Amino acid sequence: MEGLIQPRGILSLPTKPIVAARTLLPPSPALKQRLFTRNLPPLSFSSNAPTKVQSFHRNPLTISISHKERINRGFICKAEAAAAASGEGDSPNIFGVEVTTLKKIIPLGLMFFCILFNYTILRDTKDVLVVTAKGSSAEIIPFLKTWVNLPMAIGFMLLYTKLSNVLSKKALFYTVIIPFIAYFGAFGFVMYPLSNMIHPEALADKLLATLGPRFMGPLAILRIWSFCLFYVMAELWGSVVVSVLFWGFANQITTVDEAKKFYPLFGLGANVALIFSGRTVKYFSNMRKNLGPGVDGWAVSLKAMMSIVVGMGLAICFLYWWVNRYVPLPTRSKKKKVKPQMGMMESLKFLVSSPYIRDLATLVVAYGISINLVEVTWKSKLKAQFPSPNEYSAFMGDFSTCTGIATFTMMLLSQYVFNKYGWGVAAKITPTVLLLTGVAFFSLILFGGPFAPLVAKLGMTPLLAAVYVGALQNIFSKSAKYSLFDPCKEMAYIPLDEDTKVKGKAAIDVVCNPLGKSGGALIQQFMILTFGSLASSTPYLGVILLGIVTAWLAAAKSLEGQFNTLMSEEELEKEMERAASLKIPVVSSEEAASGESTSQLPETSSPTSI
Questions:
Q1: DSSP state for residue 90 in the 8-state scheme
Q2: With CB atoms 3.0 to 4.6 Å apart as the test, which of 126, 195, 201, 318 could cross-link to 234 if both were Cys?
Q3: CATH architecture of 344-574
Q4: Residue pLDDT, tens place only, 135-149
Q5: What is the pLDDT of residues 331-388, one digit of tens each?
Q6: Beta-carbon-side half-sphere exposure of residue 180 (alpha carbons within 13 Å)
Q7: Are the C-beta atoms of 335 and 573 separated by less than 8 Å?
């Protein structure tokens, strides 16, 4: 009796009538309410001298309480009291958010700000380098994505999978991000100033004269190989640092409830970074234009921008160190199936065999193909409208700023979408937006002639109108991706076990993302070779876009059901572990039927006197 009364004031009456004598204190108001609202006859408690309770005698005015009912009532009583007691001693709140949560969310938001600030600078710079370089054009991009970016991404995934089995998470993070920081610093201060010496332009000219103009794209990769390497490293920054390192770390230190509330808001600070980084690119573009003759303005601005990238990278490392040192990790369910360590091929086979991972991969690959079907065509129009590197870079700076503003607005609406409509609807918005805007862009390309008088009244040429419509398509698609698609994708990883989470993210984010872009590039190359030009293949590209988005929506619907099932299991396991940690007795139905519990009642449902 003493053992039952002592913990947190919980009173549990014994089922056997004779107990040892103990001193009883006056009941609390909550206990009186619990007892007397069930129509039980009153108990006689005395606050005077200690009362010896020898037994409970039967009273004619009693009610019948069966064995099963008694167990259920006892469990509910203890569970409610324990749950109320577990809420005691909560950490202080600021604006309704616990301080412990803020210590995680604020550094994560700053990390995301720095990562996307760098990615915007790198993304805009890589396009200017490879598109406007001598002997190159926008046609190099499909070859880069297919024959350079994809193999390097696969190689990185294999290396990352191997390192994840031998290194700790902290060591893995630093091992991956530090080479990126060192390379971008070396490119701005060493490789680009020496580009005229390290680029085999003479060899490329000889090969071009021998093979013919149709090999201009592949030969451009050889001609400007250091720029192409920068292009690939910038692409990998988006896949590796954003998707694998940051989101993997965020999933590690946040709970599901925190993710639902704050993941969409991470992009608020990140898109402020897009706005400021776009202004930074625009500033350096204007600075290059205002420099005197004979000065390599691009080299000057490149050194400044790469210095910013290195500084932001070091800030990311510091924030990661601070969170690991001062923020406690959340408790996870310990009843997950433990996966053994697997080799690289075994990991790939395991991931391919998982329907959950396959659906996630379908989402990522479909986005990459869909956006690439429009993006490369748009960049070719952009090069035709802005052939100068200064003008091209300045337009990309404005494009990044507009993307940040649009995404910031979408982020403000995303939490409402998640709360009101749930994960499934949020996951389907991005493919819907991309489909609608893509159709508008392709329609303008196909029917540019009839629209010429209309756009002339607006003071634009059909080419400039196509550039602006393509820019709007990219802005709306990317804002939907950052505000809804990425949070949905990352939330889907949370209920997975650690082995699937780590290796699944490496396979999906590092391989499937470039695979989608390379798949779109392959489709475009095939269409151009078959129909003669990109414009002639536009109707077929529109049909392909429709089919890919349809498969995307089907995968999102399938993943929605699997995600909800896993989340239900996760919540159930957490409740069971919490009950065990609070020592809430749980009596199975078999024990109740056989009378094997500590407190037993007769098998018959005869009345029990209190």
A1: P
A2: 126
A3: Up-down Bundle (1.20)
A4: 777 778 877 888 888
A5: 655 444 444 444 556 555 655 777 888 888 888 888 888 888 888 778 878 887 887 7
A6: 30
A7: yes
- How far from 495 is each of 99, 203, 245, 492, 502, CA to CA, in Å? 25, 54, 18, 7, 12
List, in order, residues 6 or more apart from 579 with CB less than 8 Å away. 79, 82, 586
Nearest to 466 by CA among 524, 518, 534, 519: 534
> pTM for the full model?
0.65
* 283 CB neighbour count, 10 Å cutoff: 14
Q: What are the domain boundaries of the chain?
A: 98-328, 344-574
- Identify the CA nearest to 470 among candidates 517, 434, 518: 434
| Across 97-113, average pLDDT | 81
Sorted by sequence, the CB contacts under 8 Å of residue 490 that are 6+ apart come out as 247, 250, 251, 259, 263
DSSP result, 393-422: HHHHHHHHHHHHHHHHHHHHHHHHHHHHHH
- The Cα 139–Cα 235 span in angstroms is 17
d(CA 72, CA 253): 36
Pure H helices in 296-343: 297-326
Question: Angle 439-231-180 (CA atoms, 0-180°, nearest 5)?
Answer: 125
Instruction: Give the span between the Cα atoms of 327 and 321, in whole angstroms.
Output: 10
Q: Which stretch of 209-213, 361-365, 405-409 has the lowest confidence by average pLDDT?
A: 209-213
Q: Identity (one letter) of the amino acid at 189?
A: F
CA 303 to chain centre: 32
14 HSE (CA, 13 A, CB side): 16
**Residue with the two structure tokens 């290195």:** 310
CB-neighbour burial class of residue 121 (10 A; exposed 0-12, middle 13-18, buried 19+)? buried
What integer pLDDT is reported at residue 525 of this predicted model?
76
CA 569/CA 336 separation, integer angstroms: 10
Q: How far apart are CA 374 and CA 379, in angstroms?
A: 9
- CB atoms under 10 Å from CB of 220, counted, come to 24
Question: What are the Cα distances from residue 435, in Å, to 49, 123, 234, 366, 539?
Answer: 81, 24, 27, 12, 14
Q: How far is CA 533 from CA 188, 516, 529, 594, in A?
A: 37, 22, 7, 80
Selection from 406, 97, 146, 463 nearest residue 255 by Cα: 97
Task: Pick the closest to residue 248 from 490, 550, 442 (CA basis).
Answer: 490
Task: Report how far residue 112's alpha carbon sits from residue 269's, in angstroms, rounded to the nearest whole number.
Answer: 7
Q: Is 366 helix (H, G, I), strand (E, B) or coil?
A: helix
- In 3D space, the residue among 373, 325, 425 whose CA is nearest the CA of residue 547 turns out to be 373
β-strand partners of 94: 97
Contact 357, 500 (CB under 8 A): yes
Query: 310: which 2 tokens?
Result: 């290195």
Q: For residue 375, give both structure tokens.
A: 């993006």
Q: pLDDT at position 228, please?
A: 92
**Residue 362 contacts residue 547 (beta carbons within 8 Å):** no
Computed from CA positions of residues 26, 31, 36, 40, in that sequence, does the dihedral angle turn out positive or negative? negative
Cα separations in angstroms, 225 against 7, 228, 230, 255, 333: 71, 5, 9, 44, 48
What CATH number belongs to 98-328? Answer: 1.20.1250
